[in-house]
Amino acid sequence: MPRLVVIRPAETDYHLEGRLLGRCDVDLNDTGRNQAEDLIDRLSQWDFASVAVSPLKRAIATAMPICEDRDIILHPVAGFNAEDLGDWEGQERRIVAQGDGSRYQQWLTDPDFRAPGGECMREIYGRAYSDLAHIVQQSEIGQTLGFVLPLALIRVFCCAALDLSIESSCRFDIGPAGFAVFERMYPRGPYQLIGWNQPATLDQEVRQQYFEEELPNV
């Protein structure tokens, strides 16, 4: 079975502003573009057979330098679109947490709870799993497959690859331009998480924002 390298899109201004992205189709900021270029070196040990991406601008812009460096075509996958956050799309996280605190707190931890007008993690799993399984099944032994996915999709991906219940999805967090690596260590065995890499370019102030506050599924 192939090795799987799952990358979160790099930084946007919405991250710095503390906004809930969801399907807001914003592009990378200058730091994000630098992070995307840095991924060329940070992922240099792997020759990707393919790179499948969320159809969002931030995912495509993150994947493009990797694909251009390796002369491969990126493949947007509709089922890998970000979480639909409904009425919360683009709003500041602190405002949602203050004004709609009960629902916000439940949304952070309950995979069956939807943002108002949006979708839940279990629904994301349902729409994304078939595309993930198809890509893996069509690959060859020993290949490395790349995926550039928003955080909610990475959480779903982790549960699928590690054969965990969707209730475990909230336990996984990774910063913009971070990546995770999954391999099968023995034939017919389960996938194992062998690498969880945060971006080296993330400064301490921004790191505190990403990892010491409660992170939404963006």
- The share of residues in helices is 25-40%
**Count of strand segments:** 6
Main sheet: strand order: 3-2-4-1-5-6
Main beta sheet, described? 6 strands, mixed
What is Rg?
16 Å
CATH architectural name = 3-Layer(aba) Sandwich
Question: What secondary-structure arrangement, pairings included, does this model have?
Answer:
Elements: E1 3-7, H1 13-16, H2 30-42, E2 48-53, H3 57-70, E3 74-76, H4 93-99, H5 101-109, H6 121-137, E4 144-148, H7 151-161, E5 179-184, E6 191-197, H8 204-212
Parallel strand pairs: 1-4, 2-3, 2-4
Antiparallel strand pairs: 1-5, 5-6
Helix pairs in contact: 2-3, 4-5, 6-7
Describe the structure.
- The protein is of the alpha/beta class and 218 residues long.
- It has one domain: Rossmann fold (3-Layer(aba) Sandwich), CATH 3.40.50.
- Strands 3-2-4-1-5-6 form a 6-stranded mixed beta sheet, sandwiched between helices.
- Helix 2 packs parallel to helix 3, helix 4 crosses helix 5 and helix 6 crosses helix 7.
What would the keywords be for this entry?
218 residues; six-stranded mixed beta sheet; globular; Rossmann fold; alpha/beta; 8 helices; 15% strand; 39% helix; disordered C terminus; single chain
